[in-house]
Amino acid sequence: MSSIRTHLRTFGAATAVLLLASACAGAGGGGGSSSDSINVLMVNNPQMQDLQKLTADNFTKESGIKVNFTVLPENDVRDKISQDFSSQAGQYDVATISNYETPMYAKNGWLAPMDDFVSKDSAFDQADILEPIRQSLTAADGKVYAQPFYGESSFLMYRKDIFEAKGVTLPEKPTWQQVAEAAAKVATPEVRGICLRGQPGWGQVMAPLTTVVNTFGGTWFTKDWQAQVNAPEFKEATKFYVDLVRNHGEAGAPQAGFAECLNNMTQGKVAMWYDATVAAGLLEANDSPVKGKLGFTQAPVVKTDSSGWLYTWAFGIQKASKKQDAAWKFISWASGKGYEELVGKNLGWSKVPDGKRSSTYQRAEYKQSSGTFSAQAEAAIKGAKPLNPGVQERPAPGIQFVGIPEFTDLGTQVSQQISSAIAGATTVDDALNNSQQLAEKVAAKYKGQ
After folding, report:
1. Share of the chain residues as helix, strand and coil, in percent rounded to the nearest 5
2. Residues 254-310: pLDDT tens digits?
């Protein structure tokens, strides 16, 4: 997603294949020599395209390993990855997967564990990977199954000049109630108080809303798989979110996603925006009209210490690959410190795939390029808690999602109900009561396991 880091996540294409039983074709294998070529299936995000351009003259020249890239839009690549990996067809040695798929793919036996590779590759420096990112790519068996290319959390962005003109301030870690009060105070007919996603999609409105649910004390499911979508805490959080965006949010909120909120913030139509940390780099770009006018805080909270989400695009090795050694060499290069330096020197530090390594945030060149937001972004990622994002234990990992295959469909259907409530076509109570029935059907599959 890099420039926009693909926040228009629908992810639904992979769901059907994820539900298939794990196939066992292909034994997996080491092997691999300097004369190997490997096949990499990759999402077409801008930073991935940078990687593709830099590979031949750098990685291949140094290692002798040719990389054959297949680069596709997100929905298409997820579908193709799930098909190839679930059947263990072995057509692709490496693929880009996220922290949503990784634990499930690992459980199904579709990925090769990386622990042995990591232990023999001291230059890779696994300890430098930010702990929440590393944890989110570790499966239930304690083994690491993917390495991050970049990562993100979520935080609050606001217009310092507008707040100063209105005499309004925000603490570094505001509550959602403080944010709502600020939105009401800074709003004018020309500038709305806040932008919040309202567009249907489990990776659109449900991503920020689920972080609000978490910090209000709610959850999709209890540890023993009791659906909680119309429970008091879930309902309170959803009503708060819907009321805030209806009263002080952007025009056209029911169809506003990441891209629309980015445009609203860039064009000065909103005073605040709660969304992905990667947005800051776009807002602070040299050609941005709001560059230098922004302040940043941690994700707003209510009952939890932190509430930012966690997401990463990462590289996994198909278990059926006969070229796992060569595949690891590519991943070690693409996810390593040396690659970040290569990008910084050749393309500029604003294009470095950040959000994954502690050392990135210590580099003077990166700090100078990222301005005021890098420290807040690092703190947001480090503060993310993928295994414990709320006030109660969870049955599956995930902050802005529930780490089960069924969530792509469930989240999408619930998001349609929420968007309808934002549009005023239904009430929050009706939306959540309908959604509870959907969640109960999913929970029934897991009870007693």
Report:
1. 45, 15, 40
2. 999 999 999 999 999 999 999 999 999 889 888 899 999 999 999 999 999 999 999
Residues 26-70: tens digit of each pLDDT: 333 344 444 589 999 999 988 999 999 999 999 999 999 999 999
Prediction pTM value? 0.87
Residue 434 CB burial class (10 angstroms; 0-12, 13-18, ≥19): middle
* Residue pair 399/310 in contact by the 8 Å Cβ criterion: yes
Interatomic CA distance for residues 441 and 390, integer angstroms: 23
CA gap 326, 238 in Å, rounded: 48
Instruction: Count Cβ atoms below 10 Å from residue 199 Cβ, excluding itself.
Output: 22
Query: How far apart (Å, rounded) are the C-alpha atoms in residues 127 and 311?
Result: 19
E strand or H helix at 315: strand 311-317
157: Cα within 13 Å, side-chain hemisphere: 32
* Tokens of residue 82, six digits: 């799930």
Taking the CA atoms of the chain, what radius of gyration do you get in angstroms?
A: 21
- The torsion defined by the Cα of 94, 377, 387 and 22, in degrees rounded to 10, comes to -20
The residue type of 83 is Q
Encoding tokens for residue 304?
A: 């939890």
Question: Number of helices (H) and strands (E), helices first, in the chain?
Answer: 19, 8
In angstroms, rounded to a whole number, what is the distance separating the alpha carbons of residues 307 and 83? Answer: 34
Whole-number Å distance between alpha carbons of 326 and 63: 9
